[in-house]
Specification:
Elements lengths: L10 H11 L1 H39 L2 H4 L1 E9 L2 H18 L4 E9 L3 E4 L16 E7 L6 E6 L7 E2 L5 E7 L1 H7 L6 E5 L7 E11 L11 H5 L3 E3 L10 E3 L2 E5 L1 H11 L4 E10 L9 H18 L4 E4 L1 H54 L2
Parallel strand pairs: 4-12, 7-9
Antiparallel strand pairs: 1-13, 1-14, 2-4, 2-13, 3-4, 3-8, 5-9, 6-7, 7-12, 8-9, 10-11
C-alpha cells in the first residue's frame, strides 16, 4: 500500500494529532492508572506499618512483668552436675533466641516437698508414720540483693558438719515463718522425704524480708516464695472444702543446696523456675509474625531440652489478639485493592478499545488516500 507522505499524513504528525485531539481522555486514563497502581503498591507497606504500630502500642500498655517469660522445669535432678548443665543449656537458648530482647534472667531452684521437723513440731523417730508439716528449701539467683536482713545474716556458701559429723546447711526465712514455726535465729529445721530416710538439718541464721515486693524481680510472687500457702482437701470431709495450710519455706545458698541433697538424698527431683526479662524498647518495630515464629521455635527447643516444661509469656496472647485484629482490619484493604485492580483493568480495557477503534479509523483513512 502506497502512502503519500507529502500530503501531510506523515506518521509522527498523525500520532501528534491523535494525542492532541484526545488529550483529556489520555490524561484521565494515565491518572487512573497512576492512582490505582500507587494504592496497590503501598498496600503491603501500609499493612506492615499497621502491624508494627499495633504491636508497639500493645506492648507499651502492658507491664514489664507481663511480657517476661516464665519457664518452669519439673523433675530436675538435684545435684551439682545436672543443675549446672541445665543452667548452661538455658543460657545457650537465651543467647540463641533472645539475645537482642533479654536483659537477663533469674532462676529459682526448689527441692521436692519434704517432711519438716521444727522446734514446735519435731520429726518423729525413724520408721514411724509419715506425718507432720511439709516444706522445702530453695535458692534464687540475686536473692541477697533483693532482701534486707532484719536479724542475723545471710547463709554461708558451704555444707557444714555438727558435733556428730552430720551435714547441715544454713538458711534464712521470713518473719512470719519464723514466728509461725518457732524457727528463730540459731534454731534447726530438719527435712526428710520420709521417716525411713536420712535427714538434712538447716540452721536458721537470718530473718529477711523483701526490699520491695512489687519489684519486677519477684514477678508478684514475693509472698508466694517467702510465705507460701498450700491448699489441701482433707479426704474425710466435703471435697469442696479447702483448708489452708502453711508449709515451711527456707532460702539457702545454691551450692550447698545441691551438694547436700546429692549426698543425703541422692536421686531427688526438684523444680526449676526461670524468669527471663524482656525489654520493651527492644520489641519496638519488630515484625509480629517474626516474633511469633521466634517464640514458637524457642518453645519447641525448650520442650526438647527440658521435657514437661512450662512456657508462659504475655507476648503470646498479645500476638494472638493482634492476628485477630489484623484479620478484621485487612478486610477494608482487601476490598480497596480489589476495587483498584478492577479499576486498572477497566482503564486498560478502555484504552485497548479506544486504540483499536482509532487504529481502524486511521487504517481506513489512509487507505482512502491511496
Amino acid at each position: 500500500m502506497n502512502i503519500n507522505l507529502s500530503s501531510g499524513f506523515e506518521t509522527m504528525k498523525l500520532i501528534k494529532n491523535r494525542i492532541l485531539s484526545h488529550s483529556y481522555l489520555y490524561l484521565s486514563i494515565f491518572v487512573g492508572f497512576f492512582i490505582a497502581s500507587t494504592v496497590v503498591a503501598i498496600a503491603p507497606t501500609y499493612n506492615h506499618s499497621l502491624k508494627l504500630i499495633s504491636l508497639n502500642k500493645s506492648v507499651e500498655q502492658t507491664s514489664d512483668d507481663f511480657i517476661d517469660i516464665a519457664l518452669t522445669v519439673p523433675n530436675i535432678p538435684v545435684n551439682s552436675a545436672d543443675i549446672q548443665s541445665s543452667r548452661v543449656m538455658l543460657d545457650q537458648l537465651i543467647e540463641s533466641y533472645l539475645s537482642e530482647f533479654s536483659s537477663g534472667h533469674t532462676r529459682i531452684l526448689k527441692s521436692p516437698n519434704l517432711l519438716v521437723g521444727t522446734p514446735k513440731d519435731p520429726l518423729a523417730e525413724f520408721g514411724t508414720k509419715d506425718e507432720g508439716p511439709i516444706g522445702w528449701v530453695q535458692s534464687m539467683d540475686g536473692f541477697e540483693s533483693m532482701v534486707r536482713v532484719i536479724e542475723g545474716r545471710f547463709p554461708s556458701d558451704q555444707v557444714l558438719l555438727d558435733d556428730e559429723d552430720r551435714q547441715y546447711i544454713e538458711g534464712v526465712l521470713s518473719p512470719f515463718q519464723s514466728e509461725f514455726f518457732g524457727l528463730e535465729v540459731g534454731s534447726m529445721a530438719t527435712f526428710s522425704p520420709s521417716m525411713n530416710f536420712d535427714r538434712l538439718g538447716v540452721l536458721i541464721v537470718g530473718i529477711v524480708e523483701p526490699n520491695d515486693k512489687k519489684d519486677r524481680f519477684w514477678h508478684f510472687s514475693a509472698d508466694g516464695l517467702l510465705e507460701p500457702r498450700v491448699f489441701e482437701t482433707p479426704p474425710e470431709i466435703d471435697p469442696d472444702y479447702i483448708e489452708l495450710s502453711q508449709p515451711v519455706s527456707i532460702f539457702v545458698n545454691k551450692n550447698p543446696f545441691a551438694e547436700a541433697f546429692e549426698s543425703i538424698f541422692p536421686g531427688s527431683l526438684g523444680k526449676s523456675t526461670s524468669f527471663i526479662y524482656l525489654e520493651k524498647n527492644s520489641l519496638r518495630n519488630v515484625d509480629p509474625d517474626s516474633l511469633d515464629k521466634l517464640l514458637k521455635d524457642l518453645q519447641v527447643e525448650i520442650s526438647e531440652s527440658f521435657p514437661s516444661s512450662g512456657f508462659l509469656t504475655g507476648l503470646k496472647p498479645i500476638l494472638s489478639s493482634l492476628a485477630v485484629k489484623r484479620f478484621f482490619t485487612s478486610i477494608p484493604m482487601v476490598l480497596l485493592i480489589s476495587m483498584m485492580v478492577m479499576t486498572v483493568l477497566f482503564y486498560l480495557g478502555m484504552l485497548v478499545s479506544f486504540l483499536s477503534s482509532a487504529r481502524e479509523e486511521d487504517f481506513f483513512r489512509l487507505s482512502s488516500r491511496g
